[in-house]
Amino acid sequence: MTNPAEHLSCKPIKWRGRNGYTLSNSVIRLTTLTGGGHIAEFHFEEPPRVSPLWIPPWKTIEPQSYREKVHKPKYGTVTEGKLLSGIVGHNICLDYFGSPSAEESRMGLSQHGEAPSSLWRKTALDRGEQRIALKLSVRLPVAGLRFTRTIELRKEESIAYITEVVENRQKADHFFHWTQHVTLGPQFLVPGDVSIYVPGSTGLTDPSGYEGAAPLLVANKEFLWPLAPSASGGEIDLRRPFVREGCGFVVGVLLDKSKNIGFMAAVNRNLGLLVAYCFRRKDFPWLAIWEENRGITAPPWNGKTQSRGLEFSTTPLPLSRRDSFLFGRLFGEPTLTWVPARASKSVRYLMLLARIPPNLEAITNVDFAAGAIHLVNGANGRLTISSSATSHLLD
What we know:
The chain is mainly beta. Helix content is 8%, strand content 44%.
């Protein structure tokens, strides 16, 4: 008799020259890197093995090895270059979402905090007959925090269950940002084939427009999801990627306050593939949406990059750290979170893949039931994904 645990594996790997681990349960495969903790790939084991996660067109390195004197020509200054040298797929922004100040940059800090540019270490591997779980941790000495992520796969499911913990080592409460910087790539985001669905409500375009390239949207304007004000007049449907080449945008969208579970889903009807993230809205009330469509010409972008970020977050926009902490509430919702002195705070979410029928309608809601997750589509449709751990989000 075959041991079910034989289908559950976690192996150290080299991914495009980077160190990491691959988890598999014979249905899906997930690759996470130790340099910055980036989740690099997430795909079915059976063909076509298309990972929706973005892989930059430039060769990345371990971000903790970035040195400005050596790497500035290829990746840019430490402010952005340290992050961009290693960025891929799904990265974490912690303990701030955005750029450091000039003074912080001189101290070696870079965009989106210490976590996505530091070395993470494996601290546990739990393997049983029905599940396998990898725990990675990283110390953030400037912030005085320790961050841990546990990624769990279960037998014969197309879901990755993720738990994250921030531990405050300081004697004072710590206020911070916690953002899941999920970025999808053009191998999946094919214009005309893809639609993006979120339970959005009111939104705000970035007050600074779009740094480094032509803005797609009018700056600092409120709107109602999914229609945002176009810089050239009219409105842009943000459910559609890459509508105008040479442009980019950043917006913050407040998720529907009436829902306990937030989600974002992207559907490629030509591939018959759906990727979705589900999370507790009380943990992540905001979705920051960012798109680069061959607009930024500075290195390492070089006018060649297409990507769409769908970033569920405790804060709406990647402003400078000073500006974002002075921002206050937006649409009545806080724009930061906190962890008490000498205490910890945890969040849970899941990422899933599904094969879909060609006539799948818009995803309007997510329902959790015993043994299943239902993605509600259209008036009466339901796409059901088997799940033995729906309590991961409902407890």
